[in-house]
């Protein structure tokens, strides 16, 4: 198999292993946000993708899928417990999301993280061609850039961080904080969602490593004594907006949206679509909604809340507790405020295909994206992309990265329950002229800065970095 110009390294491959009709396992493109973002970027390149195949102990040879070479990295059950559920999602995830849940610092998890990051780095080193590009994705793989640089000093390395990068005062808790920064600084280009994230990262570099930073660059000393310049800046990720718009114009999806509306038994549909994760603010949202029903500010006839909470990381304790709390709260609210004809909250602990999501976006009068912390939140952008008639209201948390671009949404502090209730009332009553004014501005942002642009900006900076290195 020939080596690739561009190798993407991510925790997961962009495919799921499923059983075909004959019982034989086959691969199917998975619906995740990262996959959606990168499929466009990869299409025009001779690319490979290194990642875990989604099942424990799955050890299969690299294979081609839709023009991309996929390189499965095997992870054992112990790797998954200690590297994925442990260090990635029990340490880094809560720490980087402002300690909404308490991070656990366990040395055996760190050891697994180092071991597994090395495995990903070795796979990437094997599959990238001389002088090629490797683009590492996200917090599960922060050590890969430096490990890869040691194995393949000829390649240009990018790293994109999809989740928030925390303030120094929080990051400083991490017992392995210096190793993580050094791991990341193996990259030539380090991308973040928000300007604030890039600022937090640079502050940590100055405080912990004492390397100089200037504007969007970090100067990293090397033993060969010619210092290396690393670009570190924000590249807000986006969606394939035109693809979502095309789906929204399909007659079957429009019909599905109408049928959802007809079955509601309420005048307005409010929609929440999240992974079942404590960062998403689902509990706070339910509290505000429940209180509005209790106060008589809304009735089941006025509105219904459809809350999709797709299953996520069920092996991590904090997610199990969250699920119990949410389900208890939904049951209580429905017990108190539903009627034979109306349902206060329709809670769905399931994942749905993109087509069904688009139908729901089209049916929803109000989209609730009230995360306590979120790197970007692509659901907000997807809702905006499909609302071609400029109706609909987006309620958006200030603490989601999307708020930097979508300032015309109704911005909310989800911790402020009274404030949230006021915003929810306002969203239900917003005149169509105001909806249109806000939606137009947001749609322009989403269509002007789609995922193709995002990928291009990042790859352009990698090109610049390679050219600078070749000139030196
Ligand atoms: O943005 C964070 C992220 O890890 C994405 O890369 C991924 O699509 C999503 O969360 C789901 O996480 P997991 O791979 O742990 O199911």
For this structure, the CATH topology of the largest domain is: Rossmann fold
Strand order of the largest sheet: 5-6-4-1-7-8-9-12-11-10
Bound molecules: 6-O-phosphono-beta-D-fructofuranose
CATH class of the largest domain: Alpha Beta
Name the average pLDDT. 95
**Largest sheet, described in full?**
10 strands, mixed
Q: Beta-strand level of the residues, as a percent range?
A: 15-25%
Query: Which radius of gyration do the C-alpha atoms yield?
Result: 23 Å
Low-pLDDT regions = none
User: Based on DSSP secondary structure assignment, what is the total number of beta strands?
Assistant: 18
First-last Cα distance: 32 Å
Roughly what percent helix? Answer: 40-55%
Relevant CATH superfamily of the largest domain: Glycogen Phosphorylase B
Organism: Microbacterium faecale
GO molecular function: alpha,alpha-trehalose-phosphate synthase (UDP-forming) activity
Protein name: Trehalose-6-phosphate synthase
Family: Belongs to the glycosyltransferase 20 family.
């Amino acid at each position: 198999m020939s080596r690739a110009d561009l190798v993407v390294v991510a925790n997961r491959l962009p495919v799921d292993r499923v059983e075909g009709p004959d019982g034989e396992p086959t691969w199917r493109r998975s619906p995740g946000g990262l996959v959606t973002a990168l499929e466009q970027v990869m299409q025009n390149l001779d690319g490979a993708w290194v990642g875990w195949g989604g099942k424990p102990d799955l050890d299969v040879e690299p294979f081609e899928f839709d023009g991309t070479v996929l390189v499965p990295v095997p992870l054992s059950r112990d790797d998954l417990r200690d590297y994925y559920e442990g260090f990635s999602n029990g340490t880094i995830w809560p720490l980087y999301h402002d300690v909404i849940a308490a991070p656990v610092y366990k040395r055996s998890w760190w050891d697994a993280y180092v071991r597994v990051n090395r495995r990903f780095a070795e796979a990437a080193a094997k599959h990238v061609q001389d002088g090629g590009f490797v683009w590492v994705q996200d917090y599960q793989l922060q050590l890969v850039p430096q490990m890869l640089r040691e194995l393949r000093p000829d390649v240009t390395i990018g790293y994109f961080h999809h989740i928030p990068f925390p303030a120094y005062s929080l990051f400083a808790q991490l017992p392995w904080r210096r190793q993580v920064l050094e791991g990341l600084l193996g990259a030539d280009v380090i991308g973040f969602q928000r300007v604030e994230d890039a600022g937090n990262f640079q502050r940590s570099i100055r405080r912990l490593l004492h390397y100089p930073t200037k504007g969007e660059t970090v100067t990293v000393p090397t033993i060969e004594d010619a210092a290396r310049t690393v670009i570190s800046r924000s590249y807000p990720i986006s969606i394939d907006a035109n693809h979502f718009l095309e789906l929204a114009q399909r007659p079957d999806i429009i019909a599905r949206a109408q049928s959802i509306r007809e079955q509601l038994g309420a005048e307005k549909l409010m929609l929440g679509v999240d992974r079942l994760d404590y960062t998403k603010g689902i509990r706070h949202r339910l509290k505000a909604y429940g209180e509005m029903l209790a106060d008589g500010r809304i009735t089941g006839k006025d509105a219904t809340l459809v809350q999709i909470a797709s299953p996520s990381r069920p092996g991590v304790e904090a997610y199990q507790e969250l699920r119990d709390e949410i389900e208890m709260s939904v049951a209580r609210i429905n017990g108190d405020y539903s009627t034979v004809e109306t349902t206060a909250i329709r809670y769905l602990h399931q994942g749905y295909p993109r087509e069904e999501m688009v139908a729901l976006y089209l049916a929803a009068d109000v989209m609730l994206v009230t995360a306590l912390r979120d790197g970007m939140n692509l659901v907000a952008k997807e809702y905006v992309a499909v609302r071609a008639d400029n109706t609909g209201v987006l309620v958006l948390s200030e603490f989601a990265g999307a708020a930097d671009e979508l300032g015309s949404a109704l911005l909310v502090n989800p911790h402020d329950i009274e404030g949230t209730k006021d915003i929810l009332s306002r969203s239900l009553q917003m005149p169509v002229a105001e909806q249109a004014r806000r939606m137009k501005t947001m749609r322009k942002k989403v269509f002007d800065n789609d995922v193709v642009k995002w990928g291009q900006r990042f790859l352009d900076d990698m090109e610049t970095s390679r050219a600078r290195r070749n000139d030196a």
